[in-house]
Structure formats: structure tokens, C-alpha cells
Specification:
It contains ten helices and no strands. It has 230 residues and is an all-alpha fold. Keywords: Membrane, Transmembrane, Transmembrane helix.
């Protein structure tokens, strides 16, 4: 963690800039899109700082980088969500969750974690269902399935009982859970009822989630360094 911390300083500074400026969402602009996406751009740099060869040779890291790229595009679309680009943002983040799921992999399977995540996802959709109409009835269902699957793959990687875990797997797990909290807050605020301090909750959990998921990409590098020292 100490070795990766300095590389995240630009991300923390960019996040502070976003919260200090707190640009109004009622006046979307390319500048507000830049400020919102800047922390994610810094996470691109964080991963690229580990070297192109590292990203090329480790698919999980490159897929997380690709997920961050789609996330930034989704963030830009959501700046103009009132102008009809909410669905576009939803699509971009759906692709992001597919890429993250692929990065986390299917081993270990952990069907118990999958069942639990399925129950949580189904319960969330059941609550939202009565508030949805038109294409959102189906789009939200697909999106919840994608983020629920991503959450399952992140949780499955943390095998605490068997001591088969690393700090980066734990990072991915916590990051996925925070991402789900962020998106659930968006859904409640968008379709159900106003959530107090919704924007702060959404963005704080979102940035933290993306940072933790980006950190999980360095696990393969840690394993290589450990083998070399051994």
C-alpha cells in the first residue's frame, strides 16, 4: 500500500478539486464534465504508471483500465442526463461492469456469495420496479444484473476462511460494494424519491469505489515481485 500511495496523489487532488468547486449540475458544460472525470483520468495515469508491458501482459489490469475509460465516458454522458443522455451513461457503466467482472475472473466460483448477491440484487429491483416505466423497466433490470454479477465476482475473490486472500482482492470487494451503494443511490434519487445529500453520497462512494478497484489491478505485479524476491 505504501508503494502505491504516492501514485494516487493526483487522484486525491483531483477529487478534492471536484468537491471544492462543487459545480452546479443545473448548468452542464464541458468544463464541469472535465472536473467530474478528472479523478478517473488520474486513475488511468495510476495504472499506466505501472508500465505498458505490465498492462499488456496482465489482462485483468488492462480490463480494469478499459473499464475506467468507459466509466469516464459514462460520467460525461451523465453530466447531460437531463438532456436525454441518462441511458447512454447507463450503457457505458454496464460495459464497465462487464469489464470489471472479466478482470475479477470466475475462480473461485463461490456459489454462496453468488446466491447472496442474487438475493440482494433481486430485492433492489423488486423495490424499484413499481417506480419504473417504459424502457427503464428492462434497462434497470439488466443493469442491476450486471453490477450484481460484478459484485459477486469481487466478493468471491476474498476467501477469508481459507486465508486465500490479498489486500488487493479485499480492495476489489470493498470497491464493488461501494459502487453498488453509489448506483443504488442514483436509482433511488432518479426514480423513487429525493435522497438527502444524494450527490455527495453518490460521488464520494463512486470515487472511492473506482480507486479501490484500480488498486486491485496491481495484485499481479505484487505477486511477480514476491516470486522474484523468493
Amino acid at each position: 500500500v505504501k508503494s502505491e500511495g504516492p501514485k494516487l496523489v493526483p487522484f486525491f487532488k483531483a477529487t478534492c478539486v471536484y468537491f471544492v468547486l462543487w459545480l452546479p449540475t443545473s448548468s452542464p458544460s464541458w468544463f464541469s464534465a472535465l472536473i467530474k472525470c478528472l479523478p478517473i483520468f488520474c486513475l488511468w495515469v495510476f495504472l499506466l504508471a505501472h508500465g505498458i508491458n505490465f498492462l499488456v501482459s496482465h489482462r485483468s489490469a488492462s480490463r480494469i483500465l478499459a473499464g475506467l475509460i468507459f466509466s469516464a465516458v459514462g460520467d460525461a454522458f451523465l453530466i447531460w442526463q437531463e438532456q436525454g443522455y441518462f441511458i447512454h451513461g447507463l450503457l457505458m457503466f454496464g460495459i464497465t461492469h462487464i469489464l470489471y467482472s472479466s478482470a475479477f475472473g470466475m475462480k473461485p466460483l463461490d456459489l454462496k456469495a453468488g446466491l447472496l448477491m442474487g438475493i440482494v440484487s433481486s430485492s433492489c429491483y423488486a423495490f424499484l420496479y413499481s417506480y419504473l416505466s417504459g424502457p427503464f423497466t428492462y434497462l434497470v433490470a439488466v443493469y442491476i444484473a450486471l453490477i450484481g454479477f460484478m459484485g459477486w465476482r469481487a466478493v468471491a475473490g476474498v476467501q477469508l476462511c481459507n486465508d486465500l486472500w490479498t489486500w488487493t482482492k479485499l480492495s476489489a470487494c470493498v470497491g464493488a460494494m461501494l459502487f453498488m451503494v453509489s448506483d443504488l443511490t442514483i436509482a433511488l434519487n432518479e426514480f423513487c424519491f429525493p435522497v438527502p445529500y444524494s450527490r455527495f453520497i453518490i460521488m464520494a462512494t463512486y470515487y472511492a469505489a473506482q480507486m479501490l478497484i484500480a488498486l486491485s489491478a496491481v495484485e499481479t505485479r505484487d505477486e511477480e515481485d514476491f516470486r522474484k524476491r523468493s
